[in-house]
UniProtKB/TrEMBL annotation:
Family note: Belongs to the small GTPase superfamily. Arf family.
Keyword hit for Coiled coil: no
InterPro entries found in the cross-reference section: ARL15, P-loop_NTPase, Small_GTPase_ARF/SAR
GO molecular function, one term: GTP binding
Annotated Pfam families: Arf (PF00025)
Organism name: Triplophysa tibetana
List of residues binding Mg(2+): 66, 83
UniProt: GTP binding residues: 59-66, 105, 162-165
Protein name, entry field: ADP-ribosylation factor-like protein 15
Residues in coiled coil: none
DNA damage listed as a keyword: no
Assigned keywords, A-Z: GTP-binding, Magnesium, Metal-binding, Nucleotide-binding
Length: 224
């Protein structure tokens, strides 16, 4: 009988994942493992780009918008001044980048907020939970107007009850009741969380929730 040729080429043995030292050997060789490592290093492409979302950030002067955004961008906190017009910051997170357009909260600027709403995919509203009753009323009026604005009413909202570390700060439940959020925002995607610059981990988690809402909205649009 003719003998069976058992010779296997080096290349084919690499592709099969084994270098045969005998008919029954199935142990991967060192050369093959080195080959795999080299191929992994050479063929590894650039990291997957993070999605970017355009977000508008509004709130009255003194609510703490600028401080929170500056801390999220790891900027120095000793030279922070209130935004007098508007500023744009690219705020990086693990799975997304938020291009946040922060609008100043002075009376002379609030009336122009709506001019900067176009193109927004989400909204961050920051309020001073320890402010006076009068300022709370103004903040409620502005939030209601934003929630009902044609360019914002279908967008995800993150509402931050800031300055929770102040003695006079109202709780999140008190804010929810005072701002009448349950009936007003029914059917909308919104989040209400307490915040303070001394606990940026909690602030980052609040923004992570907003990013999840933005991702869900993207998926909903993709299914249409």
């Amino acid at each position: 009988m003719h003998s069976i040729n058992r010779t296997v080429s080096y290349h084919s043995r690499l592709n099969s994942g084994f270098l045969l030292s005998g008919d029954n050997s199935k142990k991967p060789s060192r050369k093959y493992m080195d080959y795999l490592c080299l191929r992994t290093l050479c063929c590894k492409g650039p990291p997957t780009p993070r999605p970017e979302y355009d977000v508008v950030c509004i709130g009255l002067t003194g609510s703490g918008k600028t401080s929170l955004l500056s801390r999220l961008c790891s900027e120095a906190a000793d030279n922070i001044v209130p935004t007098t017009g508007f500023s744009i910051k690219a705020v990086p997170f693990q799975n997304a980048i938020l291009n946040v357009k922060e609008l100043g909260g002075a009376d002379s600027i609030k009336k122009y907020w709506s001019r900067y709403y176009q193109g927004s995919q989400g909204v961050v509203f920051v309020l001073d939970s320890a402010s006076s009753e009068e300022d709370m009323e103004v903040a409620r009026t502005e939030l209601h107007a934003a929630l009902q604005h044609p360019q914002l009413c279908t967008l995800p909202f993150l509402i931050l009850a800031n300055h929770q570390d102040k003695p006079a700060a109202r709780s999140v439940q008190e804010i929810k009741k005072f701002f009448e959020l349950e009936p007003l925002a029914r059917g909308k995607r919104w989040i209400l969380e307490g915040s303070m610059v001394e606990n940026m981990d909690a602030v980052k988690e609040s923004f992570a929730q907003l990013i999840r809402l933005l991702e869900e909205k993207d998926q909903d649009i993709g299914r249409i």
